[in-house]
Amino acid sequence: MESIIHRAESRGRADYGWLKTRYTFSFASYHDPTRMHFGALRVLNDDWIEGGKGFDTHPHDNMEIVTIMLTGELNHRDSIGHTEILKSNEIQVMTAGSGIFHAERNNLPYTPIKLFQVWVFPREKNLEPRYEQKWFDPEKRINAWQTLVSPQDEQALMINQDAWVSRASLQKEKQLLYELHGEKQGVYLFVVDGSVTVNEQDLNIRDGAGIWDTAEIAVKAKEDSDVLVIEVPFS
Fold this sequence. Notes:
There is one protein chain. By secondary structure, the chain is an all-beta fold. The chain folds into 2 domains: about 10-135, Jelly Rolls; about 140-235, Jelly Rolls (Sandwich). About 0% of the residues lie in helices and about 55% in strands. The chain contains no helices and 22 strands. It has strands at about 1-5, 10-15, 20-25, 40-50, 55-60, 65-70, 75-80, 85, 90-95, 100-105, 115-120, 130-135, 145-150, 155-160, 165-170, 175-180, 185-195, 195-200, 200-205, 210, 215-220, 225-235. The chain has a 7-stranded mixed beta sheet with strand order 1-20-17-22-15-13-14, with no helix packed on it. A 7-stranded antiparallel beta sheet has the order 2-3-4-11-6-9-12, with no helix packed on it. It has a 4-stranded antiparallel beta sheet with strand order 5-10-7-8, with no helix packed on it. Strand 18 (about 195-200) and strand 19 form a beta hairpin.
């Protein structure tokens, strides 16, 4: 087993007033040549957006973009005809593919929202742009892995990559095993809240750990904790 630890305080940061964000990997003005990606995982941004503010229309291509809502409401509009509201416990997957334009704005005028932006390199380029979103019951991830994104699970949102995004709410002292889907896969574990031990390594809130060359990982909660796992091709 091989691993790399990214402590919360080591992440890049930016403060645009209306947007406060932390970057696990190099993004925008934050550049660290040792932190460009983890396998096919390119971006993990931790965003806070002021009430009524957001990103004006902008383009993307050849990326699988996953938005994980933590709190609040996000207004989404795109060039393939979707105008949607994304709420807490909802997930959005957008295949940028051959090219898509979209805008994202806090739908609440006075209340900040929090979300994660996850970008994964696609299996192939210039796919047809696509959009999906779904609400996931938080009760079903208590002491269990809840699959949010998968290339093959009908209960999850589809992604054009051998990638899985899962989340668990672990009660204190509870342990879960996560089994990888193949020898060439790696997992990036991110502590949304609380503190956990991963294969004898302590991780606290907003710490991340990339792990590869293993068939499974063991995650044990030191306190009530919320954990996100992103599995991607690594080699």
